[in-house]
Amino acid sequence: MENVVELKNVTKHFKDFSVKNIDLQVKQGFITGFIGANGAGKSTTIKMMMNLLKPDAGEINIFGLDYKNHEKAIKERIGFVYDGNVFFEGLNLRDIKRIVAPAYKHWDDELFDQYIETFGLPLNKAIKTFSKGMQMKASLAIALSHRAELIIMDEPTAGLDPIFRRELLNILQELMIDGSRTIFFSTHIITDLDRIADYITFMQGGELVFNQSIHDIAENYALVKGGLDLLDRDTEKDFVHIHRAPTGFQALTANVNAVKRTFGNTVVIERASLEDIMYSFKGGVHHV
């Protein structure tokens, strides 16, 4: 099974917003970073992947199965790590284990104890006394203890201090070593993804802009700088977005080779960061 998650032409309408015609594949054994501005449709897409929202149109398959016929089997294999406490605040981890463990066929008490120790979490303290970082570790320990194959994380590093963010990213990298897990990681902290992601899924305005490997993004996207006299109807077609200033232009391209053929040595070409790409797409979807 190459794709753990497949969305085909998925659409969801709300009163003042829509997620439209999403075709998305999440590859097994990799970390996929999910990016986009607030309101881009990331949380809606994740909720549909979790079957917390039903699409108005299109198909969703997880592990090659659909929710209509296989909801319990799918949810056995998913772990969800949220950016806040999803448990009753007065409970401690011992209580939570007692409640959660019977819901999963593959729950492993020994593994749970191992992660609690590795993450340095107290078993007998109420969750409400945990810092945000500790709550995140608790969610992750629970997901890992039922041997979740797909871990979905919605803004897991939001609000964490830089040291704990780095620690969490190191934990995620270690989890990927045996190749059996897949992580789908929504974030607006782009630097996190530069360190750990294999693939990037980018949404803007309810539409999927691209779903590409980090390698392909680095190969294809670039910032191009040059004089305004170089721009005309023919040369502009190589760009996704163009910013003009009196001193010249800066543009984003999704096709570095085409730019090199068109402009030769008359422009400066620089690597585009994920932040550069997001900023250039701001204000509307440009199909690439």
TrEMBL record:
Keyword Transport: yes
InterPro entries for this protein: AAA+_ATPase, ABC_transporter-like_ATP-bd, ABC_transporter-like_CS, ABC_Transporter_VariousFunc, P-loop_NTPase
SUPFAM superfamilies (UniProt xref): P-loop containing nucleoside triphosphate hydrolases
Coiled coil regions in record: none
Signal peptide: none
Keywords assigned by UniProt, alphabetized: ATP-binding, Nucleotide-binding, Transport
Residue span, ABC transporter domain: 5-230
SMART domains to which the protein is assigned, alphabetical: AAA
Domain of life: Bacteria
GO MF term list: ATP binding
Entry protein name: Sodium ABC transporter ATP-binding protein
Species in which this protein is naturally found: Cytobacillus oceanisediminis
